[in-house]
Amino acid sequence: MARMKFICDSERCIECNGCVTACKAEHDVPWGVNRRRVVTLNDGIAGEKSISVACMHCSDAPCMAVCPVDCFYRTDEGVVLHDKDVCIGCGYCSYACPFGAPQFPTNGTFGLRGKMDKCTFCAGGPEANGSEAEFEKYGRNRLGEGKLPACAEMCSTKALLGGDGDVVADIFRTRVLTRGKGSEVWGWGTAYGRPAGAAAVKTEATKS
Amino acid sequence: MKALPLLGGLAAVLMLVACGEKPQTAATLKADGKPWETAQTAYTAQGWTAGDKTAWEQQLRARAQGQNEYSRAPVKP
Fold it and tell me: What is the ipTM of this complex?
């Protein structure tokens, strides 16, 4: 099996926040913590695009690299998880993460910062699979039940895809090829410019 | 009179207890179980058996295809 991955199809996301609600309900996520959020680009302008963002379970996760107590680990399925008994709640991971995935529950009179909480790809944590302790700390372990993350399975427009990276990529590729557009928001083209733009720049450089 | 040194010794031990060092063991990462080895419950999806990695992988692939509407309704030519 390849690595577990999420991808959000910006052409389909209708900003309904169903994924956010599904996640909060499934894992009893405390008030103030959002393991998943919907981000809208150019909000209010015609052609606005929305994407659902959570931990992307990076192959080379920066949170793992900066954690001073080494509380992160990666499962065989490529899911990045952490041990809350080891976490000291320092917040380094939240500065390192480009997606803002690490969340910190604040409670008490002085807003005491608790242990880090983030998307687990519905894979629980290091406690015994399906146990009460695992649910209390990390939420449901749907992978252990043979299910995919609740956010992806609940998505009404199937904008948010989750599962085996190969399968998810195939589904997304089929969509893009069928409709002839829609790969722009996520990926290389967005980060580094479209190939057409790059070609134009190259031509200019050659002329000068 | 014999009890006096004993009591003195006991008091000294009790007072020195505070000077002792408590063992400090850092919490270390616990080993996580494999998802396909999770005991099946009423909430477990049908179609695979606990402990069978291949069946579990197949189950997840089949479930992921539920997100692909083109596998349910073919594309019009």
Answer: 0.82
